[in-house]
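Weekly structure sync, notes
Attendees: PL (lead), two postdocs, one rotation student
Agenda item 3: pending single-chain targets
PL asked that the sequence for the first pending target be pasted directly into the notes so everyone works from the same version. It is reproduced below exactly as submitted, 283 residues in total.
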Amino acid sequence: MRRLAAALTLPAALALSALAGCSGLQLAYDNADTYLRWRLTADLDLHGEALDELDERIQQFMAWHRRQSLPQYARLADDASQRLARGLSREDMVWGYDALTAQGSEFLVAVAERIGPMLDRLTPEQQAHLEERMADDNRKFARDFLRGSEAERRERRARRAEERLEDWVGRLSQAQVDRIRQFSERAPLTDELRQRDRKRLQAGLLEIVRARGAEKRLPGYAARWRDEREAAFTAANEAWRRELYALLLDIDRTLAPVQRARAVAQLQRYAGELRTLAARETP
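Predicted structure, written out during the meeting:
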């Protein structure tokens, strides 16, 4: 599930990354269709007329995404900028999580509706190719997130969090850096659980594809993909999210005026860029 979703979720990731400090949004979005074609062609081993169909489906998807999703992302960025300007609360944290979760669910269903008919026509050889691509993806995930000792992994997580926050607010104070490291020590490491969940979703997708039931079943599977998560993963995610909320609230309380102004301005700029992209006609 996530292998294909990762390819067709690029436009959403680009738009949602406006809420995560991404740059070059317009350039990346303008080239999203090229990336999607390359990624899905590689994952599904498509040739001939199937490539023409894929191009048509990608263009339909991008038109839907530009019309339906980008205005919603712009409104989220506007709302987030106002909340950040006045100072964050725990209710703001919950609002942000719920809003992005809802957008992600809508997006995955749209992906499934468009790619399902093509998945039902994959040959056994193409199905085996997709399975191997998933295995490659899992090996990369392990290299990126599972290597090293627990201490090394927590250190890498702390550095990533520092870099992400500095993208938003500029140079962090030592007290802010220390608080990030405290978060990384306290929050559970969920990477092994994430890897198991990835494999669960991949197995479910492969079962649907081999049964040639993607057109009928995949949208529902996409809508309910969290429902069968193991209890340990759900509990660990909730604990991680509590620690993240506490971190962000503490960082918010320590922001210097220049740091807050920088983050608010970025959100406002992204909202404007998203509205501009949404208003453009699909090529």
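Discussion points:
- The chain has one domain: 2-148+193-229+258-279.
- Confidence is low (pLDDT under 50) at residues 1-23.
Action: rotation student to compare against the earlier draft before next sync.
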